[in-house]
Write a structure and sequence with these properties.
Strand order of the largest sheet of chain A: 6-7-8-3-9-10
Structural class of chain A: alpha/beta
Largest interface: A-B, 23 and 21 residues
Radius of gyration of chain A: 16 Å
Shape of chain A: globular
Strand content of chain B: under 5%
Largest sheet of chain A: 6 strands, mixed
Distance between the termini of chain A: 30 Å
Largest sheet of chain B: none
Order of helices and strands of chain A: EEEHEEHEHHEHEHEE
Number of strands of chain B: 0
Number of helices of chain A: 6
CATH class of one domain in chain A: Alpha Beta
Number of strands of chain A: 10
Helix content of chain A: 25-40%
Structural class of chain B: mainly alpha
Shape of chain B: globular
Oligomer: heterodimer
Radius of gyration of chain B: 22 Å
CATH topology of one domain in chain A: Rossmann fold
Distance between the termini of chain B: 60 Å
Number of helices of chain B: 10
Chain lengths: 199, 264
Amino acid sequence: MKTGLEIRHLTSAIIDVADIAVRPGAPVALVGRSGSGKSSLMRAIVDLDRNEGEVMLHGVSRSGMSAPLWRQAIVYVPAEPGWWGERVGDHLTGPDSAETRSALGLDHIQPDQSIDRLSTGERQRLALALALARQPQALLLDEPTAALDETSRDMVETLLDPMIAAGLVLMMATHDPEQARRLGLQRLEIDGGRVRGEA
Amino acid sequence: MTIDPGNGAVMLAAIFLILNAGLSMALQLGFVRSMLIAALRMTVQLALVGLVLEVVLTSASAWLTFGVMGFMAAVAGYEIMARQERRFAGLWGYGLGATTMLLGSAIVTVFALTIQIGPDPWYAPRYAIPLFGMMLGNAMTGVALGLNALTGEVSARRRGIEAHLLTGATRWQAMTPAMRRAATAGMVPIINAMTATGIVALPGMMTGQILAGADPSQAVRYQLMVMFLIAGATGLGLIVAVMGGVIRLTDSRHRIRLDRLRGS
């Protein structure tokens, strides 16, 4: 049974979260001021920082899975994506991303193009396109449209909408309440590394 | 026939140092103090090592031979640690560089002594100590440069490495570019030395042998053998050091662990 993402007693140097559940098709908006722990929570979920606690995806515990396999199932796109190669093509080694790149208006980008020559918005859309092409079971997006103009932002939302309807498990950090409303995200406020309202 | 330069000739060579010091003062180049201290240090160190070697070579004691070699390795290990801009915290700060350098140098030295040169006993100090010293000196430089490049790369490119890990890459896959840069940094000095040897410069060991009266072709054979051995010891120590560094800079959950560097 697809139960979504369940987090229990997750702690790291920055966060201390007792209980969060993100169900398929019922996406969550992580809100809170800068430095409140939104990114740290996402990093802890994908096991990128040292942390303790239980995280399960569709009933399968993270502790029973190797970290590389876990990160294939649950994909995190940081607010400022990193790149390990110098050219776009260095990052096109995974599943075919032509469709998602096209849907995000990146048809003009060539594999031999330098990553440094892309605009901040293009890099953010490229990271999202590559992440979506991997068809993750759960997606953690850290302010995915913060550097985008209105048209690009609409492209992202248009792409995410049917995926959410199809049962994607989505957690998205955003400072834009209108975007949360448009995508039907349930608000989850983080403050000082804790979920507001939790003991 | 060998010509012994004698103490007077050695002192005479120091005239050029004094000439340099005079020029430096006249032109305010500012290297007088450091040059004179270095020259004095070298004189004292070499005089002491000469005395120690005389005792060790005369006694031919295994304990004394291995004791001297152990002391050399301990000092070289400290030197590796001192050359790190970002050193590993705790015992790893000294241990990783020292053990991997020792591993490469010891394996290659024992190989050369037992299979290629064959003195009796195999650890005869006249052969073992200079050979081990040459391996150690070069492996020290290679390991120090390699580890320094590795920690620098991982610190500077953390976001890129993490982006690779986030695609489901293993720590070894994600660290490959940093490992490659670290290995290259560590091997460059010996590769450059092999390229230039015989054309740009005659190596010190070979020159010393020829000046001491050895047949040039024998000196060349020794030099070739030593250069191959040095490249082997450096490469071996460096590869194990870089792999150990990757293991320490990551963990079993394939995370970057810069917190294991001092001051991080």
